[in-house]
TrEMBL record:
Main location: nucleus
Keyword S-adenosyl-L-methionine: no
Alphabetically ordered keywords of this record: Nucleus, RNA-binding
Name of this protein: Nucleolar protein 6
Native species: Sphagnum jensenii
Family named by the database record: Belongs to the NRAP family.
Protein localization: Nucleus, Nucleolus
Pfam families given in the database record: Nrap, Nrap_D2, Nrap_D3, Nrap_D4, Nrap_D5, Nrap_D6
Length: 1053
């Protein structure tokens, strides 16, 4: 996203949307004026501690220490974003600082939360009077920066005399002057909460407590300085608006420990000063200033040495105080008074996440096209889609009660900090970021309710993983057994999981072991989190919810994941490749063996397991248990040596390929004794437990991609999905992606299974699903590529929901093959297609997907899905995504994870149920169909149809048993294709091509409708002028599916 005129135009349009017109704020200004007048004229009165007794109790302040005489504010003035004209819609708030007089406090009130209680009591008095103000509609309680010890008042202005209303709210923020308390008593290393002690009984520093008082002393000073800076420069104000839009889109304001808009404004103003290196000047544009801020956040020295603002007006604190600030706080942004660390609430993890966001933002700003603007300011990211793993837990009564409220930080903040430190130590280098989100104070709330109960607070944590080879390792190697001290610490932390292990190099170390099956490695993070939190927080495992493998059930067959066979499959492929290259009696030698089946790129939902009848007959024993009769072949493309003797006509080419297949089958059978089944199109090789379907690839086949621009030759318009060159190009494109992003394969498997479960197989091909998921990994900004299957699957659903399919092509450029000119050409072609649609000539693919081998979307989505089907798909995706988000947040019962793959059956006109024994893989069925309408026709199963090879057949020998194998036969797909040919104009078919759903849905087209005949038992389907008797239709469908169809149900709408 270069700083070009187009980018400037987009920025200006964005600013126009979020900028407040301060010339049209008469309603809120009138309300502010009324509040200021009211507060400035209040009378003195005695304040009883009973007005906030619960609040004082929770902070440990006795009543005699909370009594004081209320006096009117010394100073009431507008501060914050309204004063600097940097409010960004939709959040519109006017902050009013109310200075509490020094006479309301005792000189020792900085101790033991006395200040906080008197501050709250002062607000109680203000609330009483503000409720009587005619300009104010409601008065509610809030918290200052989500600190429950520091309440504020939130006022909703009422309508003006003319009935005009405002979207603004008013926030009353109490402040004090610098003379109220001796600031030397509030330096970071001082203890001002006497109960904060070490185990030995010595007093500990209370830096956060001290800072909570100091920050009220500098509100007026800092806001005045910001006004002097921002009111002089429109570009500075606009840059603040861009920053606010940026971090709101990333939901960074949702946690109390993030860098907020005020801190970013202070950082920006600091970079304008000499102490900030004058990295910003007033001649820069808003976008240039935004870039400087991002660069400053990323630069390590910015926060490592602390940010100490110096304006030249006030001398900073001594070097000792600076050292103390850096020693006691994770992040230091010290204001020009040198009194307070403005970022005292910002944690290391929040800063780490901010830096990572800034890194990706700078990368997006370097994008060679204009997508960077959308990534920066228009694309939302949230907790659920950002993190790889999500943890949700609730404190137990015992643990929460052990944390008193009146400490350096409030109870829940201490508990959140403990959880984060435990997870950080437990996961170590497995995770690059661990974020425990600091919860917001509950609303509505008031001081008479006391502080929030930690036992009722749900804690959320997000985990971003490092490289998966590191993150999912099966052992944490600790110190050597000779290092007694460190070994003892390791055992104390890991408990029974720690054991001594000897490694190959002879070292004996303490080790925490997480052994499991290969397909269960993604659950190691969950096991570590549960073990650490249960051990150190005395939690029951039922209180800990780690979102990791909740959808694994959809990928299991007979209780296991068939990906366990992938290493053996690749080994068998290697053996086959070597054998094919050594065949000597072929006219042209095999030079390349190219696997194209999804199993080879780890995207097959159910990779085939070794089949007992697919091994070499001479070495195979007769199985003692039933074996499956259906075998899924693995497609292999063979590239032969070049030759000019190939025939020119298509029929001759096909016959030559058939001859090669026959010769390959004969040679393989004679030389290695493998089972071979040859046809005119391919040859099936049965070896090593797998069935490989070999096809010959000829370089002059139609449909080969034009390598110069990646565009299909215009002569090829049909049969593209079966074209070998395109299948090979597709497989090659995605094979590399799985190697770079190991979570890609499992994510695709979940996405395909979801498509199957919701019966979209007939309208969305598996290759389309692979490309859609690939896009979420390649174009993951503003987030990092997902490292977990569940997060990747959620992003896949959100892509379907949020992508603007009507206005933009989806460009899947895995390897960066497209140049800027190619991208411009793709957009031009897309716009040309869409203009034809507006002209009534057809709109091209509803889902326009461009790839390096097919830039014009001719291969997979040319005819399907239609706009209506795409709309249906988006609705299903939105429903599933919303459910997953609710489950991650704990808003739904965990049993509802099953519902992600359970499809509603009430949206069809007719349902066809299949006999389980007629399905190719009945063990893959997730749910038994629940149809409540009465069947209009039923068919009994056909005798002899079974998914198993019987023992009688097996006893006849391996070679005889192989004759009963059904290789590549899918009765559901065959049934669907025959129905489509005969009734495709009457109804739409919705089915699971794998047959794992056991059901097919029918929806009658708009031109066909059901009418009642004279007899109540007779109905008709009308299609144009042809009228089809519904009873005949149902019988014909049952006859076509004889042996497969169990029953047919007509649903009333």
């Amino acid at each position: 996203m270069a700083d070009t005129p187009l980018a400037a135009l987009k920025v200006q349009e964005l600013l126009r949307e979020v900028r407040v017109d301060y010339s049209k704020t008469r309603v809120i200004e009138a309300a502010v004026a009324a509040v200021v007048d009211l507060l400035s004229g209040l009378a003195d009165e005695e304040v009883s501690p009973s007005l906030a007794s619960a609040f004082a109790r929770d902070l440990g302040v006795p009543e005699d220490k909370a009594r004081f005489k209320f006096r009117k504010p010394e100073w009431v003035r507008v501060v914050g974003s309204y004063g600097t004209h940097t409010i960004a819609k939709p959040v519109q708030q006017v902050d009013i600082a109310v200075r509490i007089p020094k006479s309301c406090f005792h000189e020792k009130d900085y101790l033991n939360h006395r200040y906080h209680v008197k501050r709250a009591l002062y607000l109680v008095v203000l609330e009483k009077h503000l409720c009587q103000c005619s300009a104010i509609k409601t008065v509610d309680w809030g918290s200052f920066l989500e600190d429950a010890r520091k309440p504020v008042l939130v006022l909703q202005p009422g309508p003006s005399e003319r009935g005009a209303t405002s979207k603004f709210v008013i926030c009353i923020v109490p402040t004090i002057s610098e003379e109220v308390f001796d600031t030397d008593k509030l330096v970071p290393l001082r203890n001002n909460v006497r109960e904060v002690k070490s185990q030995e009984g010595s007093a500990l520093a209370t830096p956060h407590y001290n800072s909570s008082i100091l920050e009220d002393m500098v509100v007026e000073h800092n806001c005045a300085w910001l006004q002097s800076v921002f009111l002089e420069s429109e570009a500075m104000r606009d840059a603040v608006l861009l920053l606010k839009v940026w971090f709101r889109q990333r939901r960074m304001q949702a946690s109390a420990d993030y860098v907020n808009g005020f801190l970013l404004s202070m950082l920006m103003a600091h970079l304008l000063t000499n102490s900030g290196g004058k990295r910003i000047n007033l001649h820069m544009t808003a976008l240039q200033i935004f870039r400087v801020i991002m660069d400053a956040i990323v630069t390590s020295s910015t926060f490592e040495k602390g940010v100490f603002i110096q304006t030249g007006e006030v001398a900073g604190r001594s070097a000792e105080v600076r050292k103390a600030l850096l020693q006691t706080f994770d992040v230091v942004i010290c204001d020009s008074t040198g009194l307070v660390n403005l970022s005292s609430r910002v944690t290391k993890s929040a800063l780490a996440e901010l830096k990572e966001e800034a890194v990706r933002t700078l990368s997006a700003m370097k994008d060679r096209n204009d997508e960077g603007f959308d990534v920066l300011f228009m694309t939302q990211s949230d907790y659920c889609s950002k993190f790889d793993y999500h943890v949700r837990l609730q404190a137990t009564t015992k643990e929460a009660s052990s944390l008193a409220h009146c400490m350096d930080m409030e109870c829940t903040r201490t508990y959140e900090q403990n959880v984060e430190s435990l997870l950080t130590r437990g996961l170590g280098d497995r995770a690059r970021i661990i974020r425990v989100l600091r919860r917001s104070c509950p609303t509505p709330w008031s001081p008479d309710q006391g502080l929030p109960d930690a036992r009722k607070v749900t804690i959320f944590a997000g985990i971003l993983l490092n490289n998966l080879d590191i993150a999912l390792r099966m052992a944490d190697v600790g110190p050597s057994a000779d290092n007694k001290k460190e070994a003892a610490k390791f055992r104390a932390f890991w408990g029974p999981k720690s054991e001594l292990r000897r490694f190959k190099d002879g070292m004996i170390t303490e080790t925490a072991v997480w052994e499991c099956e290969g397909w269960q490695r993604h659950l190691i993070i969950q096991r570590i989190v549960e073990h650490v939190l249960c051990r150190h927080l005395s939690l029951d495992v039922s209180l800990i919810h780690v979102v990791s493998g909740q959808l694994d059930f959809a990928l299991l067959e007979n209780g296991t994941d068939t990906t366990t066979s992938t290493p053996k499959l690749l080994e068998a492929l290697d053996i086959l490749s070597k054998r094919l290259r050594t065949i000597e009696n072929l006219p042209l030698q095999v030079v390349s063996v190219q696997p194209v089946s999804a199993a080879f790129r780890s995207t097959d939902v159910f990779p085939p397991l070794p089949h007992p009848l697919a091994a070499e007959a001479d070495t195979q024993k007769i199985p003692s248990k039933p074996v499956a009769s259906h075998v899924d072949p693995l497609n292999i493309l063979l590239q032969l040596e070049g030759s000019g003797k190939w025939p020119d006509d298509p029929i001759g080419i096909a016959k030559t390929k058939s001859a090669f297949c026959l010769e390959i089958a004969r040679s393989m059978q004679e030389k290695w004794g493998v089972g071979c089944i040859a046809t005119e199109d391919a040859v099936d090789i049965l070896m090593e437990g797998y069935t490989f379907r070999l096809s010959v690839l000829y370089s002059k086949d139609l449909g080969q991609p034009d390598k110069s621009v990646g565009e299909l030759l215009p002569s090829r318009t049909e049969g593209l999905m079966q074209d070998g060159h395109l299948q090979n190009a597709h497989a090659s494109l995605l094979q590399a992606l799985h190697g770079a992003c190991p979570a890609y394969g499992p994510t695709v498997r979940l996405a395909k299974r979801w498509m199957w479960s919701h019966l979209f197989s007939g309208v969305i091909s598996d290759e389309v699903v692979e490309l859609l998921v690939a896009y979420t990994f390649v174009k993951s900004a503003p987030n990092a590529p997902p490292s977990s299957r569940l997060t990747g699957f959620l992003r896949f659903l959100l892509l379907l929901v949020h992508y603007d399919w009507a206005l933009a092509p989806l460009v899947v450029d895995v390897n960066g093959d497209f140049t800027t000119a190619d991208l411009d050409r793709i957009v031009s072609q897309f716009e040309s297609v869409r203009r034809k649609f507006q002209g009534g000539e057809g709109g091209g693919p509803a889902m326009y997907i461009s790839t390096p081998y097919d830039s014009v979307s001719k291969t997979w989505t040319q005819h399907s899905p239609s706009p209506a089907v795409l709309k249906r798909l988006i609705a299903y995706a939105k429903s599933s995504a919303d459910l997953i988000v609710s489950l991650i947040k704990g808003e739904e019962d965990d049993s509802r994870w099953l519902s992600v793959f359970r499809t509603p059956l009430t949206c069809y006109d007719a349902l066809i149920l299949f006999h389980p024994e007629a399905l190719p893989h009945p063990s893959r069925t997730l749910f038994q169909p629940e149809v409540h309408s009465k069947a209009v026709i039923k068919r009994a199963p056909v005798e002899g149809i079974s998914p198993w090879v019987s023992q009688n057949v097996l006893r006849r020998g391996i070679r005889t048993a192989r004759e009963h194998l059904l290789i590549g036969f899918n009765p559901v797909l065959e049934f669907a294709e025959e129905l489509q040919v005969k009734y495709g104009k009457v109804c739409s078919l919705w089915y699971d091509a794998a047959g794992s759903s056991g059901i097919m849905g029918l929806t009658f087209s708009n031109s066909a409708h059901v009418t009642k005949a004279k007899s109540a038992k007779r109905k008709q389907v009308e299609n144009g002028q042809a009228i089809i008797d519904l009873d005949s239709f149902v019988r014909d469908v049952a006859d076509i599916g004889e042996g497969l169809v169990k029953s047919i149900h007509i649903l009333s709408r």
